[in-house]
Amino acid sequence: MTTPTTHCSPSRSSLSCCQFDRSSQDDMRGPAIIGNNNYFLQREKHSFPKRPQVDLSFRDIRYRVKEWSIRNFSIREKEILHGVSGEFKSGELVAIMGPSGAGKSTLLNALAGFTVKGVSGEVRVNGKVRSPQSERWKRTSCYIQQDSILRTFITVGEAMTLAAHLKLGYTISSAYKHSQVLELLEMLGLSHCYDTLCGKLSGGQKKRLDIALELLTNPSVLFLDEPTTGLDSSSCSQCVGLMKRLAELERRTVICTIHQPSALLLEMFDTLYVVAGGYCIYKGPVSSLLPHLASVGAHCPPYHNPADFVIEVAIGEYGTSLDKLVAAAETLPNDQKRTVALTTDQPEEAEKVKEPPPPAGFLTQCYLLYKRQLLSLKRDYSLLMARLLCHLLIGLLFGYLYKGSGYRANVLANYVYLYGSLLLLVYTGKMAVTLAFPLEMRILMREHFNRWYRLAPYYISILLVEIPFQAACATSYLVVSYWLTGQPIETNRIIFFMVVSIAASLTAQAWGFFIGVTTPIKIAVFLGPIIAVLFSIFGFCIRYFDTPHVFRWMFHISYFRAGFHSLLYTVYGYDRMDLLCEEFYCHYKRPSKFLNEMEINDVNVVNNLVLILGIGVLMHLLTASALWCKLNRR
Ligand SMILES: Nc1ncnc2c1ncn2[C@@H]1O[C@H](COP(=O)(O)OP(=O)(O)OP(=O)(O)O)[C@@H](O)[C@H]1O
What we know:
With 634 residues, the chain is α/β, with parallel strands linked by helices. The chain is 52% helix and 11% strand.
């Protein structure tokens, strides 16, 4: 494998950075000047499977959310979109505009099917009612979020190749997929970044890579949430120019939300849909915007940017009320353009339409996602190394502090060592994933929604990395500290000790996944430790019969208690011989005496192990269910 570069370099393509810079300058001169020098206007070779053209219409779209009102101490319903309607044709570049908080992203999310909960109304695709969850719709469309969410430590080429394998499966040859990848990268002006790490791309390049990744299946409808936000004017023009080209070639429907574009950029859009306060105040061609506003008494001053003007009108700066604008928008004629949907009257066109190849199968998805995880970790191993080193160092420290406590009759020191060890393994197992997972969520949301893979392979690929690593960390700690503290060197005891400790650590990790998935990061930070401590006190220095009745159930479900008692029994049970007494009298010279007094003289280690692992499996199932709900019940 080639070493990834940290900046775009001319590799695998005749196109160079110098050409890119020149094209950027061309773009700044406006759309009319974008010529053959520009990457984005290079001819598409049409090697992608032809996809159906899609006309999208929507009626009475409403979005309601339930809000908790502290003042009234009740839940109230708030309507954000108030029954908007419209129609977007294939081959059109559509801009959804409006003041901040008008409902642009909400409308885009509802149309894309990204938001389902709370949305009512009807969306039709080529005249047929669309279900947002339908597989057919998901195959036809893609949704690109505002923030570019890419894995920073894989290269552009690797990201594209992996996406191609996942999305296009293995029914088509790797050579064909590679040619698709190269063609798309060339089309989007990213060929020279093939070996560049995604994290090192510029904002504009990231946006284009986002688009390239989704274009692999050649979707008919592209939804983009504020694709130009955060870009300079040159990159904005490039981005809108690219979207325009995507709409024109193959007559895709490209719909994006946009913040106050320049007059030049605005002209590149075919259709404008202006939202204010959750209502539509204009829908139609860009060229008809100013005449329409003039008809309601809002005259655009000369040399004023129409995009700025319509926003100013929407927020009432020209004295035109929202009601008047909404009423005027309702009188706008529907688009009379011919519907270009592929229906039975166009059999030869319809014949050319192909379903994209089936995506990779379950096991292949697991393998590819696992490979991606490993690749990222290989390049960014500092965190893993830190985790491993910390375990080793703490093992040395504990070993030093409790040196020899394993064979001495000073049982209390060993008792504290065993408790501390388990607490350490529970904390490190839990917190590492509790905090890391919320960051993963955004990538998962985007890729899962765009049908890259299913949830189960994704989750399995994460576990295939996290479980062995946590087990390795725990082992490194246990080996060092077990030996230094002088615990009994007997095969069975060593095996039980290691297995129980690692199992408890992995179950804590499962809890960590669950907390990370179900709670916001700020709450997860303290909820994780609180739960760990809560379960740990039941079993440590408190006996079952001393525990108030109301808390006794905690004994039965505490994997910490099960783990701790099993460790004590493994070390002191199974008829262990007398401990070394270096003083005149040692109360716990006989290990069985200690176990008797702690009321843990009949521990069944295997049963406890089953309980620990059972809770771990249960937590993973609950995590997967919570993830499924998050992904599918938005
Ligand atoms: N789930 C929700 N709960 C409560 N309010 C919401 C929710 N989703 C959106 N809103 C509110 O709806 C309004 C519209 O939000 P939206 O994100 O669609 O605005 P926008 O036009 O895209 O704004 P911007 O341009 O600033 O991103 C905002 O006032 C927002 O606070």
